[in-house]
# Entry
Amino acid sequence: MRFTSGCNHPSFTLPWRTLLPYLVALHLLQPGSAQQRVVAPSLRVTANVGQDVVLRCQLSPCKDVRNSDIRWIQQRSSGIVHHYQYGVDLEQMEEYKGRTELLRDGLSDGNLDLRITAVTSSDSGSYICGVENADAYAEAVVNLEVSDPFSTIILYWTVALAVIITLLVGSFVIIAFLHRKKAAQSTELSESFHPHPPPKSL
# Structure
């Protein structure tokens, strides 16, 4: 069997038995036969309380997942945050009802992005993004950190107030101590200028 390569490389001739392993390997490297996996950002997703946030994941190699089983799971409780199956949204945890949306515009490109609205501090944690289809199952983990600026401000003011109260109490104690010491010194000084009269003799 004779093959002629391009780009001005010389032609070469190999028997088909020699080429068979290479043909098998080439078939295994076809996009349709590659093992699928879910890719997630390595950085933690951050948001403030009350904001909307999008947790992003993508199937690799890229593949249409509109007819797949997609689940977003809260890792610490194993509860279903959002469950999409073959075009239908199914049951989920009570605290996430009405607050999640699988962004369907990207499903045809293999995107598994989930929007969570009005996040709370309890939403912080790790989420498992999993997808299952006729080929296989794959998953990845996305980390979310929700901050509460108002609570942080209250904490700072609480610490500052505690420091101020401590200083005031300490100052009051020191002032009271110095006042008593001064009063005692004044009494001793007064007694030194007005000695007691000697006792009368019988």
In short: The chain is about 30% helix and 30% strand.
